[in-house]
């Protein structure tokens, strides 16, 4: 009898037809060492035991070795399969599985076991769900609060573009300490970089969070090196401040595979320092702008600084 096997599932079926893009050699300032520490292995084992996904692995984050060695990981809920196919992203695209009702409890258990003072929870886009997964986010927040009441919680959410009314409110009412939603790039690049999203919808979502809870910290980030110019980055900063965003992250885009969006250039550390200076000048409470900056990189330390910056600002007022 002849054995038959089904063809392997493409990780990015929507990108398979694209011509390969060259991947230039990384400069010295962007290179990181392979993870080998005991702390890294312990974090990995706890995540495996609780059958949890992380954006650190799924998106191929260059900081995974450093963060996991310190017991920090960004947990990705609602599965590993995204309903969208952004050209920059390395997360699998396809039809997701149904939600796991026990996942919020497993996340809370892992947070407790890792002893996290600050935890970041993100997810894939779930356009297949009526609420985009908002209630699942809320349940995860509540489960962490129950198991680790001393931990601060940061969520990095989808845009809920196709969700029913009230979805955003569901997440905000669960009262995370930080609400993060990334704009990812400048508006002129949305058609090629983030075609399933809408720049002004994402901006309005961040503004709406502050309207619902003025005390909640808001955060957003972009990548550079995708083909934007400096003026367009400064305009995004102005747009974020108009939406009362507290914290901006700016990091270098790294092309995951030849099928992904072309890397335009490596932005120098000096340019990142100039972006940081401009962002503080525009009134952000907190700025992280380095080649290796990612949304949740050093998130716990940054949250402490963010909170201090607000208290200092209120004291001056």
Automatic annotation (TrEMBL):
What spans are recorded as compositionally biased (Basic and acidic residues)?
Answer: 11-27
- This enzyme's EC code(s): 2.8.1.8
Necessary cofactors = [4Fe-4S] cluster
At the top level, the lineage of the source is Bacteria
SMART domains named in the record: Elp3
Q: Give me the ranges of the annotated region Disordered.
A: 1-27
* Molecular function in Gene Ontology: 4 iron, 4 sulfur cluster binding; lipoate synthase activity; metal ion binding
Q: Which UniProt keywords apply?
A: 4Fe-4S, Cytoplasm, Iron, Iron-sulfur, Metal-binding, S-adenosyl-L-methionine, Transferase
Cofactor, free-text remark:
Binds 2 [4Fe-4S] clusters per subunit. One cluster is coordinated with 3 cysteines and an exchangeable S-adenosyl-L-methionine.
Cross-referenced InterPro entries, in alphabetical order?
A: Aldolase_TIM, Elp3/MiaA/NifB-like_rSAM, LIAS_N, Lipoyl_synth, rSAM, rSAM_sf
Q: NCBIfam families in the record, alphabetically?
A: lipA, PRK05481.1, PRK12928.1
In the record, the note on similarity to other proteins reads:
Belongs to the radical SAM superfamily. Lipoyl synthase family.
Task: Provide the protein name.
Answer: Lipoyl synthase
Q: Which organism is it from?
A: Paracoccus alkanivorans
